[in-house]
Amino acid sequence: EAITALSGPNGNIDWLMCGFETSGGWQPPYVRIQDVITQSLSSALQSSSSPFKACAPYISIFEKYGNQYGIPAIMLASFAMQESSCNPDTVGGAGEQGLMQITRDKCGGAPGGNCREPDFNIATATKYFKGTLDSNGGDVLLSVGTYNGFRRGLTTSQAFAAARTSCCRCQNNGDYLHQYFNGWCQNIDAYTHNPRLGKYFNLDQCS
Predict the structure, then answer these.
(1) Class level of CATH domain 13-186
(2) Residue ranges of the Transglycosylase SLT domain (predicted)?
(3) What is the pLDDT of residues 57-67, one digit of tens each?
(4) Where are the domains of the chain?
(5) Roughly what angle, to the nearest 10 degrees, separates helices 59-69 and 73-84?
(6) DSSP-based three-state secondary structure for 189
Protein backbone atom coordinates (compact mmCIF):
# COMPACT_ATOMS: atom_id res chain seq x y z
CA GLU A 1 0.00 0.00 0.00
CA ALA A 2 1.26 3.47 -0.88
CA ILE A 3 2.46 5.71 1.92
CA THR A 4 0.54 8.98 2.12
CA ALA A 5 0.41 11.83 4.61
CA LEU A 6 -2.23 9.96 6.61
CA SER A 7 -1.85 6.26 5.85
CA GLY A 8 0.41 3.41 4.85
CA PRO A 9 0.81 -0.39 4.93
CA ASN A 10 -0.05 -0.51 8.65
CA GLY A 11 -3.23 1.54 8.44
CA ASN A 12 -4.58 5.08 8.55
CA ILE A 13 -3.53 7.45 11.33
CA ASP A 14 -7.16 7.77 12.48
CA TRP A 15 -7.32 3.97 12.90
CA LEU A 16 -3.93 3.78 14.65
CA MET A 17 -5.01 6.64 16.94
CA CYS A 18 -8.59 5.41 17.43
CA GLY A 19 -10.39 7.48 20.10
CA PHE A 20 -7.52 9.93 20.55
CA GLU A 21 -9.70 12.93 19.63
CA THR A 22 -12.64 11.84 21.82
CA SER A 23 -13.24 12.31 25.54
CA GLY A 24 -12.62 8.58 26.03
CA GLY A 25 -9.11 8.93 24.68
CA TRP A 26 -6.88 6.58 22.74
CA GLN A 27 -8.20 3.02 22.35
CA PRO A 28 -5.65 1.28 20.12
CA PRO A 29 -6.93 -1.56 17.93
CA TYR A 30 -5.44 -4.93 18.88
CA VAL A 31 -2.59 -5.78 16.51
CA ARG A 32 0.02 -8.50 17.07
CA ILE A 33 3.66 -8.07 16.17
CA GLN A 34 3.46 -10.77 13.48
CA ASP A 35 0.73 -8.72 11.74
CA VAL A 36 2.90 -5.61 11.41
CA ILE A 37 4.26 -4.98 7.90
CA THR A 38 7.94 -4.05 8.04
CA GLN A 39 10.95 -3.91 5.75
CA SER A 40 14.03 -6.05 6.44
CA LEU A 41 16.64 -3.91 8.20
CA SER A 42 19.64 -5.50 6.47
CA SER A 43 18.17 -5.00 3.00
CA ALA A 44 16.83 -1.55 3.95
CA LEU A 45 20.38 -0.22 4.05
CA GLN A 46 20.90 -1.21 0.42
CA SER A 47 18.57 1.62 -0.59
CA SER A 48 20.46 4.85 -1.25
CA SER A 49 17.66 6.81 0.41
CA SER A 50 17.53 4.68 3.57
CA PRO A 51 17.28 6.78 6.74
CA PHE A 52 19.09 4.04 8.67
CA LYS A 53 22.62 4.83 7.39
CA ALA A 54 23.55 6.19 10.82
CA CYS A 55 22.53 2.82 12.32
CA ALA A 56 24.85 0.84 10.03
CA PRO A 57 27.49 0.07 12.72
CA TYR A 58 24.79 -1.45 14.96
CA ILE A 59 22.72 -3.48 12.47
CA SER A 60 24.13 -6.80 13.70
CA ILE A 61 23.23 -5.86 17.29
CA PHE A 62 19.66 -4.92 16.37
CA GLU A 63 19.37 -8.22 14.48
CA LYS A 64 20.88 -10.26 17.32
CA TYR A 65 18.42 -9.01 19.95
CA GLY A 66 15.54 -8.80 17.49
CA ASN A 67 15.98 -12.50 16.78
CA GLN A 68 16.43 -13.32 20.47
CA TYR A 69 13.22 -11.57 21.51
CA GLY A 70 11.13 -12.10 18.37
CA ILE A 71 10.94 -8.44 17.31
CA PRO A 72 11.73 -7.25 13.75
CA ALA A 73 15.13 -5.56 13.84
CA ILE A 74 13.82 -2.57 11.92
CA MET A 75 11.36 -1.88 14.76
CA LEU A 76 14.26 -1.64 17.20
CA ALA A 77 16.26 0.56 14.83
CA SER A 78 13.14 2.71 14.36
CA PHE A 79 13.07 3.40 18.09
CA ALA A 80 16.74 4.38 17.86
CA MET A 81 16.11 6.70 14.92
CA GLN A 82 13.25 8.44 16.69
CA GLU A 83 15.00 8.58 20.06
CA SER A 84 18.60 9.45 19.14
CA SER A 85 18.98 9.48 15.32
CA CYS A 86 21.16 6.40 16.00
CA ASN A 87 23.80 8.42 17.85
CA PRO A 88 25.11 6.26 20.75
CA ASP A 89 26.43 9.29 22.65
CA THR A 90 23.02 10.91 23.03
CA VAL A 91 21.96 11.92 26.55
CA GLY A 92 18.36 13.10 26.89
CA GLY A 93 17.01 15.99 28.91
CA ALA A 94 16.12 13.70 31.81
CA GLY A 95 19.37 11.75 31.58
CA GLU A 96 18.13 9.13 29.11
CA GLN A 97 21.03 7.16 27.73
CA GLY A 98 22.34 6.26 24.31
CA LEU A 99 20.86 4.87 21.11
CA MET A 100 17.59 3.79 22.68
CA GLN A 101 17.38 6.58 25.29
CA ILE A 102 16.92 4.16 28.17
CA THR A 103 16.27 5.67 31.59
CA ARG A 104 18.97 5.66 34.26
CA ASP A 105 17.09 3.11 36.38
CA LYS A 106 17.73 0.50 33.67
CA CYS A 107 21.52 1.00 33.72
CA GLY A 108 22.38 -1.56 36.39
CA GLY A 109 25.00 -4.00 35.13
CA ALA A 110 26.21 -1.78 32.31
CA PRO A 111 29.80 -2.65 31.28
CA GLY A 112 32.13 -0.36 33.17
CA GLY A 113 29.04 1.57 34.22
CA ASN A 114 28.64 2.83 30.63
CA CYS A 115 24.92 2.69 29.91
CA ARG A 116 25.52 4.04 26.40
CA GLU A 117 27.57 1.01 25.28
CA PRO A 118 25.59 -0.05 22.18
CA ASP A 119 25.23 -3.79 22.87
CA PHE A 120 24.08 -3.24 26.46
CA ASN A 121 21.88 -0.32 25.45
CA ILE A 122 20.06 -2.17 22.66
CA ALA A 123 19.79 -5.39 24.70
CA THR A 124 18.29 -3.53 27.66
CA ALA A 125 15.79 -1.61 25.56
CA THR A 126 14.75 -4.72 23.62
CA LYS A 127 14.22 -6.72 26.80
CA TYR A 128 12.16 -3.85 28.24
CA PHE A 129 10.05 -3.56 25.09
CA LYS A 130 9.46 -7.34 24.99
CA GLY A 131 8.37 -7.20 28.64
CA THR A 132 5.96 -4.37 27.82
CA LEU A 133 4.62 -6.31 24.84
CA ASP A 134 4.07 -9.43 26.95
CA SER A 135 2.38 -7.51 29.77
CA ASN A 136 0.06 -5.94 27.19
CA GLY A 137 -0.96 -9.36 25.89
CA GLY A 138 0.95 -8.92 22.64
CA ASP A 139 -0.74 -5.60 21.77
CA VAL A 140 1.94 -3.97 19.62
CA LEU A 141 0.25 -0.58 19.03
CA LEU A 142 -0.23 -0.08 22.76
CA SER A 143 3.33 -1.24 23.45
CA VAL A 144 5.01 1.02 20.87
CA GLY A 145 2.87 3.90 22.12
CA THR A 146 3.97 3.18 25.69
CA TYR A 147 7.61 3.53 24.58
CA ASN A 148 6.78 7.14 23.67
CA GLY A 149 4.67 7.92 26.73
CA PHE A 150 1.23 7.05 25.36
CA ARG A 151 -1.31 5.13 27.43
CA ARG A 152 -4.76 3.76 26.79
CA GLY A 153 -7.28 6.58 27.33
CA LEU A 154 -4.84 9.40 26.49
CA THR A 155 -6.69 12.39 25.00
CA THR A 156 -5.35 15.04 22.65
CA SER A 157 -5.71 17.71 25.33
CA GLN A 158 -3.64 15.62 27.75
CA ALA A 159 -1.07 14.69 25.11
CA PHE A 160 -0.58 18.27 23.96
CA ALA A 161 -0.94 20.01 27.35
CA ALA A 162 2.80 20.65 27.72
CA ALA A 163 2.69 22.99 24.70
CA ARG A 164 1.54 25.69 27.10
CA THR A 165 4.38 25.09 29.55
CA SER A 166 8.11 25.80 29.58
CA CYS A 167 8.66 22.23 28.34
CA CYS A 168 6.93 22.32 24.96
CA ARG A 169 8.84 19.24 23.79
CA CYS A 170 7.42 17.25 26.72
CA GLN A 171 4.26 16.79 24.64
CA ASN A 172 3.43 13.42 23.13
CA ASN A 173 3.95 13.50 19.37
CA GLY A 174 0.43 12.88 18.05
CA ASP A 175 1.85 11.54 14.79
CA TYR A 176 4.28 9.13 16.47
CA LEU A 177 2.56 5.83 15.64
CA HIS A 178 1.94 6.74 12.00
CA GLN A 179 5.53 7.96 11.61
CA TYR A 180 6.81 4.80 13.30
CA PHE A 181 4.76 2.10 11.57
CA ASN A 182 4.25 3.72 8.17
CA GLY A 183 7.49 5.71 8.06
CA TRP A 184 10.56 4.27 9.78
CA CYS A 185 9.38 0.64 9.61
CA GLN A 186 9.01 1.08 5.81
CA ASN A 187 12.59 2.37 5.43
CA ILE A 188 11.32 5.95 5.09
CA ASP A 189 12.59 8.98 6.99
CA ALA A 190 9.48 10.05 8.88
CA TYR A 191 10.86 13.56 9.39
CA THR A 192 11.82 14.45 5.81
CA HIS A 193 9.25 12.53 3.75
CA ASN A 194 7.20 14.59 1.32
CA PRO A 195 4.31 14.83 2.03
CA ARG A 196 4.91 15.05 5.76
CA LEU A 197 3.66 12.03 7.66
CA GLY A 198 0.91 13.01 10.06
CA LYS A 199 -1.85 15.49 10.79
CA TYR A 200 -1.18 16.98 14.21
CA PHE A 201 2.42 18.25 13.93
CA ASN A 202 1.96 19.49 17.48
CA LEU A 203 5.70 19.75 18.12
CA ASP A 204 6.09 22.35 15.34
CA GLN A 205 5.25 25.13 17.78
CA CYS A 206 8.25 24.23 19.96
CA SER A 207 11.14 26.42 18.87
Answers:
(1) mainly alpha
(2) 61-149
(3) 999 999 999 99
(4) 13-186
(5) 130
(6) coil
